[in-house]
Amino acid sequence: DEKGDKMSKTRGNVLDPIEFLDRYGTDALRFALLTGTSPGNDSKLSQAKFEAGRNFANKLWNATRFVVRSLDAEGVDMEIRREKLTTDDRWILSRLNRTVSSVAGLMDGFQFEEAQRQMYDFLWGDYCDWYIELSKTRLRSSSDEVPSPVPVLVHVLETSLRLLHPFMPFVTEELWQNLKKCLPSGYLADDSIMIAPYPEAAPETFDTEAEGIMESVIEIIRSIRNARAQYNVESSRWVEAQIYGGNLAPAIAPYSQAIEALSRARPVTFIAARVERTSDDNTLVLVLKETEVVIPMASMVDLDAERQRLEKEIAQGEAEVGRLEARLSNSEFLSKAPAAVVGKERDKLSVVKDKLERLRQQLGQFKS
After folding, report:
1. What is the largest CA-CA distance in the chain?
2. Taking the complete model, does pTM exceed 0.85, yes or no?
3. In this structure, which of 144, 250, 324, 338 has its CB flanked by the most CB atoms within 10 Å?
4. What is the pLDDT of residues 199-222, one digit of tens each?
């Protein structure tokens, strides 16, 4: 079970597979049985793993529904022309084929859990969370000069379903058949995903340059999202963002609209030089791997209200530190209290001091 104890009816810790099949589905059970396993170790099974399998199946279902709805009723040219691919197209194709290559090696070595984990990370993370979200900007565009992402959306999804089929056969068959109905005649020649050829990697699609550019775009979006979360910015509020991209600026600039939409930042502007902060500068500078993001604090919070809130929390923290230090310097307390209690108080003092230091650093960004 999830605690590492062997399942037995006497202990009452048996998970009935029939019950979980009815509740979560067969593919969720298969997913759960592989998750977190490794050769030579016991497999710990928990309800959370069943729920993760069900959620993954739902994610695949929603992604396929999005792709099917994106197919033009009049038909789309499904041929992928490399000369017309955007950077994010090249990135997702490179990530797909790297995943196919890695999964093939892992399956040859009977490392099925790691193979499943990599497919999960690619489909949920790279494809659903990022490529599909980035593609929505192009799908909303009315310009004929903007290439449609639909051929790549379909190709990556269809290939991924075949890659995942041995692990989750039922949902992949269902989704593959639904996708096939909406595609031009002859695009998928086989009658079933079961007899369709298993994917093989295409090394010519590996694109280190595109992967580096998209890694920076994703890092920028994540950093702005994290800053919003750190300062409890309302979801309806748009923040301002200035980006120093260095040599990557020309490649990142086309994704300014996507950065705006996915991080709730407007306007997003690109600056030519790094920002040198001064003592009275109320800005948040996020130093990333290849880029920097500068967010004026006034665009995120009410400066006066935030300053007052931080000052109040700091005062409370200082009072708590004083109380704990006084207690820990009391010889009578130290001699009579159990060692566990004294240790707990010292740990609490360390946590409060750490929080107090972080609060003072935040207050330093709100100069009068």
Report:
1. 86
2. no
3. 324
4. 999 999 999 999 999 999 999 999
Question: Which amino acid is present at 35?
Answer: T
- Distance from C-alpha of 248 to C-alpha of 279, rounded to nearest angstrom: 29
Under 8 Å between Cβ of 292 and 248: no
Going by C-beta distance under 8 Å and a sequence separation of 6 or more, which residues neighbour residue 344? none
pLDDT digits (tens, 9 = 90+) for 233-288: 888 899 999 999 989 999 999 999 999 999 999 999 998 887 776 555 678 888 89
CA distance 279 to 354: 23
Q: What pLDDT is attached to residue 360?
A: 82
Task: State how far the alpha carbon of 174 is from the alpha carbons of 65, 87, 117, 165, in Å.
Answer: 12, 31, 22, 11
Helical segments of 16-81, H only: 17-24, 26-34, 47-70
Q: How far is CA 195 from CA 114, 162, 166, 179, 225, in A?
A: 24, 10, 12, 16, 43
Structural contact between residues 241 and 295, judged by C-beta atoms closer than 8 angstroms:
yes
